[in-house]
Amino acid sequence: MKKLIILFVTLIQLVVITPVIAQNATVVFNYDDNGNRTSTMLMVTRVTENGTNTIDTDSSTEVNLSVYPNPVDNYLLLSMGSCEVDGFEAILMSVEGNVLYKTAISSDHAEFDMTQYTSGVYFLYVENGDDRYVWKIIKRQ
After folding, report:
1. Dihedral of the CA atoms 39, 132, 91, 116 (nearest 10)?
2. 13, 20, 48, 76, 139 from 53: Cα distances, Å
3. CA–CA separation, 14 vs 31, rounded Å?
4. Which residue has the higher pLDDT, 49 or 27?
5. pLDDT tens, position by position, 102-115
6. Looking at residues 49-65, what average pLDDT do you find?
7. How far apart, in whole angstroms, are the C-alpha atoms of residue 136 and residue 121?
C-alpha cells in the first residue's frame, strides 16, 4: 500500500507540478546602500512551441523608493527617485493595524514627523493603484 501511495504522488508530481515549473518565474529585487528595496522586476522564462526560451519582463512595478533613516528618531524621509508621483499614497500603521497617518504624495520627497509616536515598530505602506510597497520602520526615542 505504501509503495502504491508513493507511486501515485510521483505521478501527480510529473503530470501536474512539472509543467508549472517549466514556466520559470524570477523576481529580481534591487536595494540601495541602506538596505531599502528600490525596485522590483518580475521575469518569466517560458518555452515556446518551437522550443526556444523567451523572457518576459514586467517592470511596471519598477519604482525607485527609498525610506531613511531606519531606525528613525524624529523625521522619516521618503524619496521617490525618478518615478512619477501621481497617484501615490503613504500610510503609516501601527503593528496592531491602526492607521496613524495617511497622505497623498505630491512631490518626489516626503517627510513624516515621527516625534509624536512612541518607540516601537511601525509599517509604512506606499500604494499606487494595485502596487503596494511596505517597510518595517523602527522608531527610537
Report:
1. -40
2. 23, 15, 6, 44, 47
3. 37
4. 27
5. 999 888 888 999 99
6. 51
7. 7
Q: Are 90 and 102 within 8 A, CB to CB?
A: yes
d(CA 86, CA 120): 31
- The residues near 52 (Cβ < 8 Å, ≥ 6 apart) are none
DSSP 3-state of 77:
strand
**Confidence at 41, pLDDT banded by 50, 70, 90:** low
Q: What is the enclosing helix (H) or strand (E) of 68?
A: strand 66-68
pLDDT (mean) for 12-16: 53
The structural domains of the chain, with segments of one domain joined by +, span 66-139
Pick the CATH number of 66-139 from 1.40.20.10, 3.10.310.10, 2.60.40.3080, 3.30.43.10: 2.60.40.3080
| Cell triple for 22 | 517549466
Identify which of 140, 139, 131, 141 has the alpha carbon closest to the alpha carbon of residue 37. Answer: 131
The answer to whether the CB of 88 falls within 8 A of the CB of 128 is yes
